[in-house]
């Protein structure tokens, strides 16, 4: 059986603790979806990328609408835009089912509750470079309306 380029692929990258699928998201662009049941309060996976200064991260963010940059310390940011880690496609939701944690300079994702197979994995981005000017499209009942 042949695969089409748009078919989702189950991914278990070296830094993934659970299988996930990257595919189109109703929230924005691509998202990452659970391919198996993820129990509450467990590490799902992490993202890696290019270590840059926070100043360089802010410079890059100012010129882009869609970014994958996370500040991991007062001086260091990680640009995951070229990463192959599937968790880089984690979208924002005002009613997130996971959280992003910075642990020893690593960007890790943990489930807040059980996540069902097929459910999109989301985190609350908190402060972003958009400064409240980008419309939030998460669709949650408690959506604040902007990022």
TrEMBL record:
<dbReference type="GO" id="GO:0005694">
    <property type="term" value="C:chromosome"/>
</dbReference>
<keyword id="KW-0489">Methyltransferase</keyword>
<dbReference type="InterPro" id="IPR001214">
    <property type="entry name" value="SET_dom"/>
</dbReference>
<feature type="domain" description="SET">
    <location>
        <begin position="18"/>
        <end position="126"/>
    </location>
</feature>
<feature type="domain" description="Post-SET">
    <location>
        <begin position="132"/>
        <end position="147"/>
    </location>
</feature>
<protein>
    <submittedName>
        <fullName>SET domain-containing protein</fullName>
    </submittedName>
</protein>
<dbReference type="InterPro" id="IPR003616">
    <property type="entry name" value="Post-SET_dom"/>
</dbReference>
<dbReference type="Pfam" id="PF00856">
    <property type="entry name" value="SET"/>
</dbReference>
<dbReference type="GO" id="GO:0032259">
    <property type="term" value="P:methylation"/>
</dbReference>
<keyword id="KW-0949">S-adenosyl-L-methionine</keyword>
<dbReference type="GO" id="GO:0008168">
    <property type="term" value="F:methyltransferase activity"/>
</dbReference>
<keyword id="KW-0808">Transferase</keyword>
<dbReference type="InterPro" id="IPR046341">
    <property type="entry name" value="SET_dom_sf"/>
</dbReference>
<dbReference type="InterPro" id="IPR050777">
    <property type="entry name" value="SET2_Histone-Lys_MeTrsfase"/>
</dbReference>
<keyword id="KW-0158">Chromosome</keyword>
